[in-house]
Amino acid sequence: MSETSFIKMNGLGNDFAIFDGRAAPLSFSAAQASAIADRESGIGFDQLIVMEPTDKADVFMRIMNSDGSEVDACGNATRCVARLVAGEVNRPGVTIETNAGLLTAQILSEDQVTVDMGQPKFDWQDIPLSEEFRDTRMIELQVGPIDAPILHSPSVVNVGNPHCLFWVNDVEKYDLAKFGPMLENHPLFPERANISLAHVTSKNALTLKVWERGAGLTKACGTAACAAGVAAARKNLTGRNVAVTLPGGDLQIYWREADNHILMTGPIEVEYKGEIDLSSYSA
Length: 283
Fold this sequence. Notes:
Order of helices and strands: EEHEEEHEEEEEEEHEEEHEEEE
Strand content: 35-45%
Mean pLDDT: 95
Number of helices: 4
Structural class: alpha+beta
Shape: globular
């Protein structure tokens, strides 16, 4: 029996099992990742992270959702991996390669990390959508009867992955667990989408609830917070610097005007270190 080490971490309760595949290759099938994600029979997590070698950055970060699907970006996981790598290289600034591109991170303190998430994408082809919308600040999509929709006219944006945000007056008023799966898999989103409810509470703050693509309801989603901050600013609902409150806590999102990069700052936490016998999970 061979045990494989991992570190359990979270950002605002959005939790990860982080494996180190830099010394020896480490891969997971979709079925295996999903089995390990089970909170009763496995480790339990929102995303499985594998750190891999790269000559383009300090580390490459591979991301798998709890349903076994692979995704290109995860803001909270990026902060966690940045904290681990910064400790290894003994410097506050690190670079992380993902399928969504190269990200830079700065360690502010023991538990606070800022990540430059790059530039958001707004063109319908880049999100992507299955049909053309000239203005992605508000697209035609609704939940409920045509003459009295429950939700309608969301904003869409890509922040390393696709996001769809409905603007509401109370994020708890709607059953996101009920319609989240339907909207995630809506034909309008060929690569599926993260679905959020966003409530702007002031010019520099908003509240967010997220149904994460491939993971379901989550305590926090870093890229969704970035998407919400950017989309709110585009609609002139807020400024470019906002505090985003999620069920797990707050993230600070700053959409920098000089280069349109999104800076996300928030906490990380190491929960525990453990070992697991991968052969006992279906491959």
